[in-house]
């Protein structure tokens, strides 16, 4: 029996990757060279492969280009260096303090909904307030892994209960588009294509011109909760997993919503 050897795709040259990120950030060679305090000639040589960047140079250029940690590791490996930034699973003992901190933050935000998501918007953790709002959904949506964007916009998920769905949908799609622009993540790009395919077509903002932010107006029973979303991330992460975590909290946009959320929490006691 004959077999055909599978050939792995060779890694792309570091120069090609640097040039791609520079162009993606809409910078000229002069812009990047000036910002990174190197000569344009040296940058040109690195991009063309005539000069090999050092590890420190790659990190310096990546910082100026605001490249996420995961993609910085990819640049380093393309140049033959070991990754600088570690990646651990959330169950790793080294992240125990992070898990504890996230849990304290989630609990501290009660009775307001809050959840932690990873890079691809997969649910990592949530508080009781969030679970109360999701309790009436089809159980299929509550089985891990739970993608929060898919759950929010799918016609059999939360979408039928969001009163201002066109505005909220536009807000979420724009956030995802900006994240794709920052990371060039193909999995996120595929998620965006999927979300755009859901019934309703391209949504547009319909919020009042006087509004300071787009709220989510969620119908729960016979009441409508109006909530503003806030995002918290770690400011100086040196771990890939930590850098990709975000805590999404929903705070009341009005006193009526604050009162309803308090009453929902008190009814469980």
How does this structure look, described?
This protein has twelve helices and five strands. It has 269 residues and is α+β, with helices and mostly antiparallel strands. The protein folds into two domains: 14-78, 434 Repressor (Amino-terminal Domain); 93-266, Beta-Lactamase (2-Layer Sandwich). It has a five-stranded antiparallel beta sheet with strand order 2-1-5-4-3, sandwiched between helices. A hairpin with a 5-residue loop joins strand 1 (114-117) and strand 2 (123-126). The model is unreliable at 1-5 (pLDDT under 50).
How does the SSE layout of this entry go?
Blueprint: H1 14-24, H2 29-36, H3 40-48, H4 55-64, H5 69-78, H6 96-108, E1 114-117, E2 123-126, H7 128-134, H8 148-153, H9 165-183, H10 186-196, E3 216-220, E4 223-232, H11 240-243, E5 246-252, H12 255-266
Antiparallel strand pairs: 1-2, 1-5, 3-4, 4-5
């Amino acid at each position: 029996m004959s077999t055909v050897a599978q050939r792995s795709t060779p890694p792309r040259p570091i120069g090609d990757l640097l040039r791609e990120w520079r162009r993606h950030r809409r910078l000229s060679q002069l812009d990047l060279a000036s910002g990174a305090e190197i000569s344009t000639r040296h940058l040109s040589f690195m991009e063309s492969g005539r000069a090999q960047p050092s590890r420190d140079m790659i990190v310096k250029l990546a910082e100026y280009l605001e490249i996420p940690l995961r993609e910085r590791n990819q640049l380093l490996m393309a140049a033959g260096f070991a990754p600088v930034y570690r990646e651990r699973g959330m169950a790793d003992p080294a992240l125990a303090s992070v898990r504890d901190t996230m849990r304290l933050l989630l609990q501290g935000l009660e009775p307001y909904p809050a959840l932690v998501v990873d890079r691809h918007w997969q649910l990592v953790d949530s508080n009781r307030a969030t679970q109360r709002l999701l309790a009436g959904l089809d159980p299929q949506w509550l089985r891990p892994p739970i993608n929060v964007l898919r759950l929010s916009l799918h016609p059999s998920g939360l979408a039928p209960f969001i009163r201002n769905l066109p505005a909220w949908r536009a807000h979420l799609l724009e956030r995802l588009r900006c994240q794709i622009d920052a990371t060039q993540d193909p999995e996120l790009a595929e998620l965006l294509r999927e979300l755009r395919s859901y019934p309703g077509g391209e949504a547009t903002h319909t919020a009042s011109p006087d509004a300071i932010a787009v709220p989510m107006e969620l119908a729960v029973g016979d009441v409508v909760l109006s909530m503003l979303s806030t995002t918290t991330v770690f400011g100086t992460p040196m771990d890939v997993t930590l850098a990709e975590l975000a805590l999404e909290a929903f705070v009341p946009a009005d006193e009526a919503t604050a009162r309803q959320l308090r009453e929902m929490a008190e009814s469980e006691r």
